[in-house]
Specification:
By secondary structure, the chain is of the alpha/beta class. The protein folds into two domains: 3-112 and 283-295, Rossmann fold; 114-279, Dihydrodipicolinate Reductase, domain 2, CATH 3.30.360. Helices cover 31% and strands 21% of the residues. Strands 8-9-7-10-13-12-11 form a seven-stranded mixed sheet. Helix 1 (12-21) links the parallel strand 1 and strand 2.
């Protein structure tokens, strides 16, 4: 039976992965005593004993942990930003062309970033199939629940009386957000988008939007929607351009591991939209999907679809 170890199981993503794996009967979940979580030797032993390792750590710690694996058999799924554009690592978004087979064959998988997942799902197929030029100058507005900020941010939002936290807050103001390199690389863009992430006072759910002028794209609105339907025939991404009475809630897929994408507007001005759970398809759900591919299991095993 495959052995699985989560390094960093006390963090938000690690806890969600651990919770999802508790009921799995097709794996053996290796655990470490709470008082030994920072014991390097204990961690190294488990990292090398496991068949699959999830790294749920800050970037520097994830790089250190990956370097501690001294065998060629342990497969690593890194949920940090550390390896998403690194040589030798496969980007863990199976729905992209050819990516599913690459993941199955790889021992080093970089789990996608949450905001990046939505942008890439919307943009990469258009560039790949020639409907959007590689030199396109794009913008991306992305709304997320506060759970994506980790334990400290969750505690702030759930306990504070700070009035500034009662309204949406834009961040990443310097245009150096850690997701930008993967957003540019995986979409094949010459220039990263102008990126405006916003955290709002609700727990989970994400809504990533890419505004697009028809003049910048070789396809009409319906053609783009049809392309998405053809492109995303398998996996956890599905196409639906229905709204909620003229509104689109960022919480529509909270608690799910799927991603809904749609195309709104008209042929002159349109908005590409991806909605998903920032802790689901944007984090732990995507990690479990990648593990399932490595195991040869049903891709949706243990997921909320």
């Amino acid at each position: 039976m495959p052995r699985v170890f989560i390094d960093g199981s006390a963090g938000t993503t690690g806890l969600r992965i651990a919770d999802r794996l508790q009921s799995r009967t097709d794996i053996e979940l290796l655990t470490i005593d709470a008082d030994r979580r920072k014991d390097r030797d204990a961690r190294k032993e488990l990292l090398n004993d496991a068949d699959i390792v999830f790294l749920c750590l800050p970037d520097a710690a994830a790089q250190e942990a990956a370097a501690m694996i001294a065998n060629s058999t342990t497969a690593v799924i890194d949920t940090s930003t550390a390896h998403r554009v690194s040589p030798g690592w496969v980007y863990g978004f199976p729905e992209l062309s050819g990516q599913r087979d690459k993941i199955r064959r790889s021992k080093r998988i970089a789990n996608p970033g949450c905001h990046a997942s939505g942008f890439i799902a919307l943009t990469a197929p258009l560039v790949e199939l020639g409907m959007l030029r590689k030199d396109a100058k794009l913008t991306c507005f992305s709304l997320t629940g506060f759970s994506g900020g980790g334990k400290a941010m969750i505690a702030d939002y759930e306990s504070t009386t700070d009035p500034l936290l009662s309204a949406p807050r834009m961040y990443g103001l310097a245009q150096t957000h850690k997701h930008l390199p993967e957003m540019q690389k995986l979409c094949g863009l010459e220039t990263p988008p102008v990126f405006c992430p916003v955290v709002a006072p609700y727990y989970a759910g994400m809504e990533v939007t890419v505004p697009l002028f028809g003049a910048d794209c070789t396809a009409a609105r319906q053609e783009i929607e049809d392309l998405y339907r053809s492109y995303y025939r398998t996996g956890l991404v599905f196409v639906a351009s229905a709204d909620e009475g003229g509104f689109l809630s960022a919480a529509a897929l909270a608690g799910k591991d799927t991603m809904q994408i749609g195309v709104f507007g008209n042929d002159s001005r349109m908005t590409l939209v991806a909605r998903f759970d920032n802790l689901g398809k944007g984090a732990s759900g995507a990690a479990i999907q990648n593990m399932n591919l490595l195991l040869g299991a049903q891709e949706t095993a243990g997921l909320m679809v």
